[in-house]
Design brief:
Structural class of chain A: alpha+beta
Helix content of chain A: 25-40%
Number of domains of chain A: 3
CATH topology of the largest domain in chain A: D-amino Acid Aminotransferase, Chain A, domain 1
Strand content of chain A: 25-35%
Shape of chain A: globular
CATH architecture of the largest domain in chain A: 2-Layer Sandwich
Oligomer: homodimer
CATH class of the largest domain in chain A: Alpha Beta
Radius of gyration of chain A: 20 Å
Largest sheet of chain A: 9 strands, antiparallel
Number of helices of chain A: 10
Largest interface: A-B, 51 and 51 residues
Order of helices and strands of chain A: EHEEHEHHHEHEEHEEEEEHEEHHEEE
Number of strands of chain A: 17
């Protein structure tokens, strides 16, 4: 839906929001929607989805089950999603019946690394140097252009370090290509970044934009470990990050919350920003907003897609968000400090590498 | 359950919390339990209960349906409630099968004004002067002792101004008595209070106690209109209110969150406190905690009854909570300011006098 259409009417409280995806993000979106008086309906193929525990309305079906998608869309008032890998055909079926927010173009761009980089570059937003790779010869050409080390990635369906290989020497090329091909690939030049930060930004149906403070992110085993706010960057760089995130949602004619990951790159004694990737949804590195912001990212997303005015993203305290991976969650509640706000996802099985919950350690200013 | 028993084990995340009552308090308790990874099961006779929209597990049955209560208790791990008027027989059935928290003694005391006042007075906690009234002669004697004006109330099942009459002159006595009897009644002496405040306090299964800052409450038509924090009282009086609330939960061997309403009474150039009433549950005058506290009253209640450590009740900002009664809710979302955090209850029909939601206006310090 374009913001240039006639001024949209806000979706009344009591309406039903359909959510594609029943993981922790879908669950937290549902809880936020409930706080605004909305009903939610979760669509997910996994009958054990954690989001099924927070609403009586669910559809258990595959994402390409056209009949189930149609019934789902007819049962809800608007549709949103917790993950960017919604198939294009799925988005098409749903958006024919009910408003899909964020829109299909945000999905198409963000679910393909090449399309995303091309889009960002076309808007003069700085990204790491990259080359498309379909053949071994492409890879050799790309290495010649970008040098080593470099990172070879599938263009689609990668997350948490899956679908990528770091190339350190020529000996790494053939095995990495064999491993990842025949999927379309992209080679990204190695970025000697000093920090990773991210900005969660929201744009409303009327075009209003609000960005949260940047978070500084630390990964472990390619999975987000902590997000710390404020990030240890200059106020100038923080403002730049917010402006880039704002430029992206405007360029996409976006509605909802979007996460933008940046590399902070030292150059000539100062720091510059490159966009690593964008995610058209609430973002793990924005979970701290629930503990310390006037409006958290989940409520902000629901407000945006419902055509409500955005809330204030202002932050009342410093905070460190820490993911609880696998059996780390079992240490709770025994070691729960008073100034720690836990959020657990109700997943039955604490498998290694699985995000089971997070905690926010709140530092009073 | 007494805190003097063997050290209890915390209820593991993923367990099921049974909640008696499907109104907004049950709904907000369910949402808080979900944030800690618990499942919830709501028991309520009203098939349109707003809490039924935030969990797939419900029982629609009368509170005296023994078979339904038994099935419910067997399906959950612990039981709590959103209202103090749980019948004693209901509490007895449930607590035979699963832990009922807060316990039956808190219910017995708080659902009877006479028992409550006698309990408080026995603990040297100041209450308004009162007399039990069963006959017209009792009423005449009580008026002789306490004077006019005074307030005649049913001892049980009064709320939001229901079940009470203010007596201004002798002519009011007979009609008020005729109207309220043959229920057991209590006459309360008129208190020339300057303000009403309340304290929400929590006690854990291990006896830990934490109190929130006092809120200053304004009523309209006998229904809470606003709660403002901080209250305009001296630090000394605020501390006293917290200490009285703490003394009450200790005296009750209480587990969970409890609300204590006070009158602030000017006397000899200073202010003193009288306890007006207590409520063994999360409290409308504590809804501000969700917007600005490290741990809100709903999560605090769930932590307490689950045997988890209590969270920090510290407050990060000033706040005014305002109830949205009846069609006041229809003004949202259009007039929603950025610094306003709304919480709507998803009730289908905005009947006059019905609590439909609330907003928290957050003032940054």
């Amino acid at each position: 839906m374009s913001v240039n259409e006639t001024q949209p009417k806000p979706l009344p409280s009591g309406s039903t929001i359909g959510i594609l995806g029943g993981g922790q993000l879908g669950r937290m979106l549902s809880l936020a929607a409930s706080r605004l008086g909305f009903k939610t309906h979760i669509f997910c193929p996994d009958p054990q989805s954690p989001a099924f525990d927070v609403t009586p309305h669910k559809t258990v079906a595959a994402y390409d089950d056209a009949a189930a998608l149609q019934r789902f869309a007819e049962a809800v008032d608007i549709v949103t999603y917790e993950f960017e890998n919604v198939p294009a055909a799925t988005a098409e079926i749903l958006s024919r019946i009910k408003p899909l927010r964020p829109g299909a173009n945000a999905l198409a761009i963000s679910q393909d690394r090449l399309a995303e980089k091309a889009f960002l570059a076309s808007k003069n937003i700085p990204v790491a140097p990259y080359r498309a790779v379909e053949t071994n010869a492409d890879l050799a050409d790309a290495i010649a252009a970008l040098g080593l080390p470099a990172v070879l990635k599938t263009t689609r369906l990668g997350y948490d370090g899956k679908g990528q290989r770091t190339l350190g020497s020529d000996a790494d090329l053939a095995p990495a290509f064999a491993d990842l091909s025949p999927k379309p690939l992209v080679l990204e030049g190695f970025i000697p970044f000093s920090k990773e930060i991210s900005v969660v930004v929201a744009r409303s149906l009327t075009g209003e934009v609000k960005a949260y403070d940047p978070a500084e992110n630390v990964h472990r085993n390619h999975i987000l470990h902590t997000s710390t706010v404020p990030a240890t960057i200059s106020p100038t760089l923080a403002r730049q990050a917010g402006m880039i995130a704002t430029a992206i949602v405007i360029a996409l004619d976006y509605v909802g919350v979007l996460g933008v990951e940046f590399f902070v790159v030292p150059a000539d004694g100062r720091e510059t920003l490159l966009v690593n990737e964008i995610a058209p949804r609430v973002h793990n590195s924005g979970h701290w907003t629930e503990a310390v912001c006037l409006t958290d990212q989940f409520e902000q997303h629901i407000r945006a897609i419902a055509g409500w005015p955005l809330g204030d993203p202002a932050r009342l305290a410093d905070v460190v968000m820490e993911n609880l991976i696998g059996d780390e969650v079992l240490a709770l509640p025994a070691n729960l400090d008073g100034d720690t706000q836990p959020h657990l996802y109700g997943k039955a099985e604490a498998r290694p590498g699985r995000k089971m919950g997070h905690i926010n350690r709140i530092g009073r200013n």
